[in-house]
Amino acid sequence: MIRQAVANDEVAVRACAEQAYAQYVSVIGRKPAPMSAEYGAQIAAGILYVSIGEQDELRGFIVFFPVDQHMFLENVAVSETGRGKGIGKALVQFCEAQAKRLGLASVCLYTNVKMIDNLSIYPRLGYIEVERRSEDGFDRVYFEKRLG
To answer: What are phi and psi of 16, to 5 degrees?
Structure first.
């Protein structure tokens, strides 16, 4: 089940992010941006959604919000126990469905160039690489998926 996050989810969301992104600290040379995100503020703003399992455990989360005519997918993470079960894909599809519901033209996102798995995952989900640039000390790869 995917639902909007509530304040009580913040600790589990932060733990999930730490788990999901810890492997990239040594590769990137510092903590990836999602490890320092203001999850409490994102929950309060209503832009963070969680995937909850049968035992009411957090299996993953996603952060997205509209910008102009597209939905910006800022962050998606899956817990260790949730990996390989289609949770990340379901969260991305949920974001896409919300974008369509709002009549937005596309979903845009970026990932770090050193997060090699993501560079192949997003194209398999229909995303096209549109740009590479350095921002805030991170080398980022931008993707877009046109909806329609």
So the answer is: -65, -45
41 sits in which H/E element: helix 39-45
Q: Residues 49, 91: contact at Cβ < 8 Å?
A: yes
* Span 61-95, pLDDT tens digits: 999 999 999 999 999 999 998 899 999 999 999 99
Do residues 90 and 62 touch, judged by C-beta distance below 8 A?
Answer: no
| pLDDT higher than threshold 90 for residue 148 | no
Domains and CATH numbers, the chain: 2-146 (3.40.630.30)
- pTM score, whole prediction: 0.95
CB 113 within 8 A of CB 133: no
Let me know how long the chain is: 148
Residues 6+ apart with CB under 8 A from 54: none
Cα gap 107→5, rounded to integer Å: 21
Contacts of 83 (CB under 8 A, 6+ apart): none
